[in-house]
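Appendix B, Record 12. Input sequence as logged:
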Amino acid sequence: MKIEIQKLNESELEKRNIDSWPIWEKETSRFDWHYDTIEECYLLEGTVVVETSDGEKVEFGKGDFVTFPKGLSCVWDVKQPVKKHYNFK
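Logged structural output:
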């Protein structure tokens, strides 16, 4: 299972209507997480390293558009407090 990271331009952000998505915030922390569905998110602030169950480490931060696949189990390591828009598909 692969975490996908993209850089979207302003028109792509508007096309997806990301500003209307809910916002989630989290302080510096480390926690286990499992995705029961696909999640898309756009980071407004922060830095995160996600460690997958197969040992892969993926780092992303402000300005990244990230897609997490359904069925992914991982550990979130929030290095700098996060603020993100999110959407479940």
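The longest strand covers residues 73-88.
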